Structures are given as structure tokens and as C-alpha cells.
Amino acid sequence: MVHRVIKPSPTPDLVSLARDVLRQTEEITKYLEGNGFSVPLSLQGRRAHLKPRKDLTLLADGPKRFWRQLCGFSWDLGAFQVALDSEFFTLIPAVDRTERIVRQLIAYGVFAEHEAGMVSHPPASLAMQGEEFRCFVHYSMRERLKSSAANGFYLQSGSSEEANGNQDSIAKQHGTGAYEQVAKDPEHSEIFARAMAGWKKLNVQHNDLLQDSFDRANRKGTAIDVGGSNGHISRDFARRYPHLTFIVQDTNRDMLRQGAVKLTDDIRDRVSFMEHSFFESQPPIQGVNACAFLLQQCAHNWAGPDVVAIFKALVSGLESAGTDTPLLINEIILPGRGEWSRHQERLARQMDIAMMAVHGAKERTRAELEALLKEADPRYEIRTVFDDGPLGVLELAMFLGDAVGGNRVDVGCPKAQFEVVDDGTLLPSSITGQTILKSL
Ligand SMILES: C[S@@+](CC[C@H](N)C(=O)[O-])C[C@H]1O[C@@H](n2cnc3c(N)ncnc32)[C@H](O)[C@@H]1O
Fold first, then answer.
1. Does the Cβ of 229 fall within 6 Å of ligand 1?
2. Ligand 1 in contact with 181 (CB < 6 A)?
3. CA angle, 254 as apex, 250 and 260 as ends, to 5°?
4. Is the separation of the CB atoms in 359 and 302 below 8 Å?
5. By the 8 A CB rule, do 184 and 122 touch?
6. What is the H or E stretch that residue 25 is in?
7. What is the ipTM for the molecules in this complex?
8. Is 100 strand, coil or helix?
9. DSSP secondary structure letters along 262-280
10. Which residues, at least 6 apart from 5, have a Cβ–Cβ distance to it below 8 Å?
11. Which tens digit of pLDDT belongs to each residue from 111-125?
């Protein structure tokens, strides 16, 4: 695809255009006279006006070209309509600054200019056609850059060693935590959720260890995707494991809505969306046999005391599900000294710095995560750790001991009533104030 850049095209010269028409008319007239054809009335003695230029064109084209053009014109109109619908005429403002920015991107090879003034899309630009990937880059520029710049300043202004989740640099600028800030703006929520999906797609191996864990366990029932954003992982996994169902929990309604809209027929009945804060106890969900709780890239957004609160809130869900149902924590598990190559470690540490700047939080080692888990509930037991990938998996069981016979526990909560909504809107439940959204 080739765009013309920014230069105003020269205004057509009316006089030379008229001269051209006149010259062509004379040639046609000469040809007609020279070959014994009668000159049509419209051309006789009126060369200078050429008001019926259209007639001249029709005459010169002949009947077949006329019909061909007439039939083809509808396609041209369609192209114009697309150009208008997609705002081709206004997307790139024709101002000096646009050209300068485009030129810098050309210098990076993001755009190309093989011919002066003609800008085209090389692979670096074509890669941005994918919506989720583009959102990942967009989010990184839009949000992270600001936080990174502000980080040093706010750390100097007396932040504790590990800041409280709502005391990070963004919170200090806006007076709220990063996710509260995201939730205020539906467009921001959408970009963020797509950015998370884009980040995963950037390195498909990010889901490998989680997938291994699912493959090994042969789970049956419903996986609860806690803090699951727009459910991009649950949707992927629902396609991969047709015998499983998924409930995606998040507090951001726009993300949940976005996920419901993205459901396709093959998974529509197996993925549902529920508004739930992971700081609140997991409510038992009627008729649901929870086969795993997933906490993917959530703990790293929060400071230690917040993470302890999240782990505590999951206990009721694990208790009612039983010992076979694990909590799967899926995030970077920082390596010990020299365990990873420097290249791998740099990428992990980059994310750690991002968590410091954006959330006042951090990536953690296995030992750090274990200490927080034990603080939340000493019955948490690490069953397996896979920390050899960009996103590790910590498989945890809740040791329920003799008191519960090592099996299911009735935690004595009244069953929550969730309203299943089938038109894409959220309905609060009259009993619990929770909401569930399911696209049928
Ligand atoms: C880093 S994203 C991870 C999303 C998803 N698990 C993934 O791996 O792509 C963190 C998610 O936590 C959600 N979140 C923030 N506060 C929450 C809360 N109190 N309860 C539930 N989810 C929350 C955010 O809306 C966001 O979707």
C-alpha cells in the first residue's frame, strides 16, 4: 500500500488543460474530416468552448468503452466510500510536523520512501496492522513512558522500599491506582486489555508452561481465570481444551464486555465473564466444579501486603473446591544468581522495573512468592514450580488436612446468586452485589 505524503499537489492549470482539449479536438476533427466522416454538430465551429466535452469523450471512447466505464464506476465509488469511511482524507494532517515525524520513522525503517515523496509500509509498519500487537506498542508508549520518566522523581520523594499499590508514581499523579485509572476510561481499558493479549502473542511461548500444566493434569470442570482481563487466555484455552469451561473474573467492566463480544460460536457456551474483585473472598458459584484457579500476571502488579490479601481471598474458593484443585500462579518467577542467561534475565528485570514504575510493585523469586503465600495461609503448599520460561508456573495446593478429610469442605457460605445475562449487558445480582456476564 502506498500513500502520497503531505505535499500539496500542484493546482491543475486551466489554460493548459483547455489548450490540451483544444489540441485533441483539432486532432479528432482532422481525423474525422480526413477520413470522410461528417463532423458532429457539437464540434463544428465551437472548438474553443468545448462545453460538451463529455460528448467529445463519449465520441472518442466509442460505445464499448462507455459501457465498460459505466459498469466499472460502481467499484470506484465503493473504493471512495471505503476511503471516506476509513478517514483517509483526514487521518494524516497535511502539516509540517506530520512530515517531520514521518521522516524520523523512515529513518528507523518503520516507513519506507523508495521514491521521493512516496511513503510505503515495510515489514516494521505492516507488523502494526495486527490490532493486539499495535495496542501493546501503543500502551507501552502512552502509559509506560510517562511512568518511567516520573519514577526517579517519585522514588526520591520518600517512597518506601516496596511501595503500596496505590502509592506508585501513577497513583501519586492521579490520586488513584493504575487500574482504577484505566477503568475510568473505556478506550483506555480496551487498549490495555488488547495490549496484554498482544504482549502474549508477541512471544507465544509465554503460555507454554501453563499449557504443559493443563496437559499433564487432565483437568475436568471449570477454570476460574482470576483478574483475567478480557479473557484472552481463557478464550485461547477453551479452544484448546473443548472439555473445559472458563469463568473470567475482573473488576473492569469494559474489559469483560470486550471479552464477551469476542466470543465465537465454538466457545460461547464455555466461557463466561464475572465482575469480581480478587480482594474479595471467592464466592462459591452454584453448579460450578472449579478445577483450577488461575492468577496470571496479577500478583506482580501489587505490593506485598496487597498480594497477601489476594492470596487470602482465594482460600475460600480452594477450600470449597478441594485438594485436587490447584492455584496456578503464572508470572515471571525471577531466577537466582546466574541461573538464566543475561539476555533472559534482562527481559525479566525490565518487567520488574516496569512494575516498580507503574504499580509500585515487583516481579518476585519463588522464595518471595512462597513467603507471601504462607503469610496469607500456612496451608498453601507449592506442589510444582516451572520457572524456566519467560512466564513461570507455580502450582499450589491448599493442604486441607484432617479437619476436612483431605477432600471437599463446605465453608458454610450461602450460595451466591449470579444473574446470567444474555444480551451482552451486566446485571447486578440482588443477593450478593456480584455480577456475571455470559454471552450465550
Ligand atoms: C496485568 S493484567 C493481567 C491480565 C490477564 N490475567 C493476563 O495475564 O493477560 C491485571 C488484571 O488485573 C485486573 N484487576 C485489577 N484490579 C483487580 C481487582 N481488584 N480484582 C480483579 N481484577 C483486577 C486488571 O483489570 C487487569 O485485567
1. yes
2. no
3. 80
4. yes
5. no
6. helix 14-34
7. 0.99
8. helix
9. T--TTTTTTEEEEE--TTS
10. 99, 102, 113, 117, 118, 119
11. 999 999 899 999 999
